TrEMBL record:
InterPro entries: AsmA-related, DUF748. GO terms for cellular component: plasma membrane. One of its GO terms (biological process) is regulation of protein targeting to membrane. PANTHER family: DUF748 DOMAIN-CONTAINING PROTEIN (PTHR30441:SF8). This is DUF748 domain-containing protein. Pfam families: DUF748 (PF05359).
Amino acid sequence: MGIKSYVIKNSKELIGRQIDFDDFKLNYFTGTLKITDFKMFEPDNVTNFVSFDSLIIDTEIYRYFKNEKVLEQVYLKGLIVNTILQDSSFNFDDLIKFHTLDTDSTKIEDTEPFQYFLSNLELKNAQFIYNDRNIDNITDIEDLSFFIPFIGWNQEKKSNVDVKFNLKKGGSITSSFNVNPVDGEFDANIAVNELYLDAFYKYVVEYANINSFNGKLNSQIYISGNINEAIKSIISGKVTINDFEMTDKQDKKFLAAKNLKVALQKIDYANSTYVIDSLNINDTYTFFHLDSISNNLFEIFKLNESNQNASTTTIADRSSIDSSADKIYYAINHLNLNNGVLDYTDNLTGEEFDYHLSQIQMESDSIFSSSKWVNIYSDMLLNNRGTLNAKIGVNPQNTDNAEINITIEKFLLSDINIYSNHYMGHDILEGDFYYNTKTEITDGTITSENKLLIKSVAISSNEKGLYKLPLKFALFLLKDKNGDVNLDVPVRGDLNDPSINVGKIVWTTFKNLIVKTAARPINFLAGLVDGDPKELEEITLTYTDTIPSEKSIKQLNKLIDLENRKEGLKIEIVHFADLNLQKEAIAMAEVGSLYNIETKKDYLHDLKGFETFLFAKVESDSLSVKDAVLRWSTNQNLDSLVNDYNSKLIKNTQDYLLEKNPFTKIQVIVADPKEPEHSGSNSKFKMTYNMLDDR
């Protein structure tokens, strides 16, 4: 039986699998072996596992007797290897088992080591096919070739291996390895050209709910180390990804970048050191959708599931994680994001809210894990109009210490009309918003000074609104002579308290300011006329006044001045008086007037004579003065007198206002008789403030 027939027939016993080949030639004199059309089958004896077109091995047999292994040539062409992963098993596991020796029962004798000389090692047009059946994905490496001129046991220079292959789905990889077989030192240069990322789509799908994963990767990676301690190798180089894009399950683009460049300065896995010299991301796009429970990015990347799992992590686990994290050193010397776009949307109010951020710039220098302070700068365009400029400083070692400075200009208030309508019951028709905040966080305690400037704001009210804040009137009051609203909103709180929510603090502070402003408008209006708020709140009168007193006139003058200074302000002067008490006072005044007519004396300065006069009129001296006046007044129409007094007071007051300003819109009116404030009240004017109806 020939060698070929013997080997094929007994291949399972010899090497663990059935094989077949076309030609087998062995020259015993030259030490040359040639095999063509070789096939190794799967256990089913039908499917190819490994095959190649031709193998040539040229040895120098005689040097074997000098304890030297010499290969003049190894040439392998057309190699095809089919690797399959199913669950956790590979299709070559049986071969590994077959060729695994029982080292415990086999005694290896000490022998003198061979000296080896290997020349002209060449692999040409090889193909490796990796079928991961767990995710139904096939990776096909084509046209793999390399050539090694020489490897010797005593060589002083490194051997060079140049490898190049293509991926069937797109892209190629070329590499150059230089290895010293004596001491194991090596260096490698690996270049990836136009590698299509969609080839890895099915691997990414395990961690993300996506429909596509696209982009092209180019890289130039340098690796140096020792093959005996490969884990201590040092990696550096450059990585570029172009036209990166991911779409969600609805085929909507949610993450993209035109260009991403990473310059790796040093990756030292063994020492947990990761240094990136520069990270540049250009023309990015992010779509972010927020709902009341989560957001689209958490859903896509399954972070909600991760958070649930994280909640079950024990204290010991966390301590272990924290301890490992402390040992990691990372650095980004230069970070730059250029021309980013973020589309934000939510339906928290029941209506869809969309907002567009563009021209996003972000940069930072020297982000180190050991840094005590890191500054990040950012600029962006708000809905194609407003601008935002930010500087954020933080201590990476302790995030309870930070500084946040943000300036917003020309933010269009109508952009947030949906929120204003829902929460405050107002439609913002127009207006520009300017905002500046300086926030310091020290050991978790926040101190924030917020300055807001609102220009040319116009608001309409409706009956809706979760809180129904008097925003329209409050902003009207807060406007200065230029129509601008300047607000200072300080925020204080302890972030270490889990019940503290910064957003709620800001909202509550703003809400309280609006409510207090609308509830006590006098506090804001008094400053316009350099007046005491009390002067603009109430004018004290007597029951018998029919014309404004000198003091009242001064207060009325301030109201005229205020009306002129605050265009659109509605002022109403409302008269209150206890009519029963006023009747008594008027009756006394009428009797006093009669006494003056008949005696030519003032009853207030002649009380004894007045009492005698009064008792004579009622023909009784046993009554009190008050009761005597009431008895006398039974013949008087006091209701008519009270009405006459009050009418004259209101008319004369209104006439005075018109005399001072013929165009005044200040109204003097009588309070509703049902108002409880009449009871026990002296005669007085109370001022109310609002906006004119036509505004």
